[in-house]
Specification:
The complex is a heterodimer of chains A (289) and B (265).
Chain A lengths: L2 E10 L7 E11 L4 E5 L6 H7 L8 E6 L2 E3 L9 H6 E4 L12 H11 L4 H14 L16 H13 L5 E5 L7 H18 L2 E6 L2 H7 L2 E6 L2 E6 L1 H6 L2 H5 L6 H13 L10 H14 L4
Parallel strand pairs in A: 3-8, 3-9, 6-7, 7-8
Antiparallel strand pairs in A: 1-2, 1-4, 4-5, 9-10
Chain B lengths: L15 H4 L2 H14 L6 H18 L3 H25 L5 E5 L2 E4 H27 L2 H12 L9 H31 L9 H32 L18 H20 L2
Antiparallel strand pairs in B: 1-2
Helix pairs in contact in B: 2-5, 2-6, 2-9, 3-5, 3-9, 4-5, 6-7, 7-8
The chains are: A alpha/beta (289), B mainly alpha (265).
């Protein structure tokens, strides 16, 4: 399912002394099957953008097209359930949304809200719990007896069981240890590959963005600062550094090396392997181009 | 939805009311609550209304903001009005339609009592809109200080108050966040039959309770690790000072009270 934001503006608390714009003139296209990363500082408007993707927020200006549905400011929207089912959002700290007595019931909550039968929901729960890498025995436990990392996975399973076409992740690895982070990101990446799930990842981490995404959008002060493929974004890192945003370690290394050796490699490398190949090639030739 | 709530919300602005000592504001509100009951005819109620709107004007809080924020309370006021209209059976009959009979006294009392109610809400809203919660508790603590002599735990009470006031916005944000998360999972909070809607409260309330308990515990640990041990010998960073404008405001209220007392029937 394609999603497209066209010149979207959103103001919080319209008609109060607290009125302020959160995002303005944001245009982003998310064709079916894309892995898109949205990067920006806290308060840059990334979370606001994210809430437009399944019509939790209605733009105050511009329009959002989700599949065949068009969300515009003037019209009151009804029957948003279909959109909500097809676009699953995993919010930041999703473990805070757990409430049922057992893990199984909690995972079934989403699908059953969308009219799936109890039997089918339970089947999906079993499948989803496997996908997030937890044993099936956990289904009968109370979600509040689990560890933080397990709770996070259960909450993610709750969204996966809705079987969405698009999955939106708001800093899914915040507060996890490095191993947990990698496991969860790898899991989303493989889901993206095997199920053809469009994935939107909101993150601080340049490493994650450069490793997994095919498109990157950089947000700054509520506007789209830059968008493109990771290569395009990181080939001119000066702008990013000026905004106080990080660049991936590999890119940083390459920059430093280029500066101190006063050479220039032929391309910006995003992975360690790429960079070593490039360096090896330069050494073989004896000169950098 | 949460955007429009104005309870416990502070609107920063530069105004006389904002700069008043929280103690004088609290005393003023307390006295106002008493004085409201002095009014018993058109003229006195009129005076009270004028005074209230004068105070709103002084506070520089946009009236439209107060209006949208108080809309839900307005329903309650209207409900009070109708309750009196239908249930008071005194005075002459004004109007009869089927089983509905409206008496003169009912109309009079209905209007006056709901107006009184409305004015009280307005005045207390001005207090919370122009005073930060911390100022309110500081003021309260200072006003209640004499009670320390009879072993009343004034400081603890003030602390409890400031903690709960402090967490209202946090709780609101949390509610909003969880509502969104559950909506994204297909929960429907805004439509459907009442029975269904009551059920949708559970996915909202349980996470809210869980996080509140967790937060309370974290707060307790944080306070203890910073050596908190109650109010004994504790100095204050924020000093209260009572100025001329505070005395003037109270004097104005006293004058109003006197006039009301003379004009009431």
């Amino acid at each position: 399912m394609d999603i497209s934001l066209q010149n979207v503006e959103y103001r919080y608390q319209v008609n109060t002394p607290f009125e302020r714009p959160a995002i303005k003139d944001v245009s982003i296209d998310i064709p079916s099957g894309t892995f898109l990363a949205i990067i920006g500082h806290t308060g840059s408007g990334k979370s606001t953008v994210l809430q437009h993707l399944n019509a939790l927020l209605k733009p105050t200006e511009g329009q959002v097209v989700i599949g065949e549905r068009k969300i515009i400011p003037e019209k009151k929207q009804k029957n948003l359930k279909e959109i909500r089912q097809r676009v699953g959002i995993v919010f930041q700290f999703p473990e805070h949304q757990l409430f049922e007595e057992t893990v199984e019931k909690d995972i079934c909550f989403g699908p059953m809200n969308f009219g799936v039968s109890e039997e089918e929901a339970k089947k999906r729960a079993r499948a989803a719990i496997g996908q997030v890498g937890l044993p099936e025995e956990i289904l009968s436990k109370s979600p509040f007896d689990l560890s933080g990392g397990q709770m996070r996975r259960v909450a993610i399973a709750g969204v996966l069981a809705m079987e969405p076409d698009v999955i939106v992740l708001d800093e899914p690895t915040a507060g996890l240890d490095p191993r947990g982070r990698k496991e969860i990101m790898d899991m989303f990446y493989s889901l993206h590959g095997t199920r053809g799930l469009s994935t939107v990842l909101v993150t601080h981490s340049m490493e994650d963005a450069s490793r997994y995404a095919d498109q990157i959008v950089i947000m700054h002060n509520g506007e789209v600062y830059k968008k493109g493929t990771p290569k395009e974004i990181f080939s001119s890192p000066e702008g990013l550094l000026k905004l106080g945003l990080d660049v991936p370690e590999v890119v940083r290394f390459q920059l430093k090396m280029e500066k101190s050796l006063n050479i220039r490699l032929s391309k910006t490398c995003l992975t360690m392997d790429e960079l070593t190949d490039e360096i090896a090639a330069v050494m073989k030739r004896g000169t950098a181009t | 939805m949460m955007d429009k709530m104005i309870f416990g919300r502070y609107v920063p602005a530069e105004s006389v009311i904002h700069r008043m000592d929280p103690r004088s504001k609290l005393v003023l509100i307390f006295l106002f609550v008493c004085i409201v009951f002095l009014a018993n005819n058109l003229l006195t109620y009129g005076l009270l209304t004028v005074y209230t709107f004068f105070m709103i004007a002084l506070s520089k809080v946009p009236i439209r903001f107060i209006y949208t924020g108080l809309k839900p309370v307005l329903l309650l006021v209207i409900f009070t009005l109708f309750l009196h209209l239908f249930l008071t059976k005194e005075g002459e009959v004004l109007f009869r339609f089927g089983w509905i009979t409206i008496y003169e006294e009912g109309l009079r009392q209905g209007i006056f009592i709901s107006l009184r109610f409305f004015l009280l809400i307005l005045m207390t809203s001005i207090l919370t809109l122009t005073t930060t919660p911390i100022e309110i508790t500081d003021g309260l603590e200072s006003l209640l200080n004499p009670l320390n002599k009879v072993k009343f735990p004034v400081h603890e009470l003030a602390l409890m108050m400031s903690i709960s006031l402090r967490f209202i916005p946090t709780l609101m944000q949390e509610t909003d966040k969880i509502m969104k998360a559950q909506t994204a999972r297909g929960a429907d909070f805004t439509s459907g039959p009442i029975k269904e809607r009551i059920k949708t409260i559970i996915p909202l309330l349980i996470p809210l309770f869980v996080s509140s308990f967790k937060r309370a515990e974290e707060l307790a640990v944080a306070m203890e690790s910073r050596g908190y041990r109650g109010g004994e010998g504790r100095t204050k960073y924020r000093q209260l000072n009572w100025g001329l404008k505070d005395t003037a405001m109270l004097a104005m209220l006293a004058a109003l009270a006197l006039v009301l007392f003379l004009l009431r029937t």
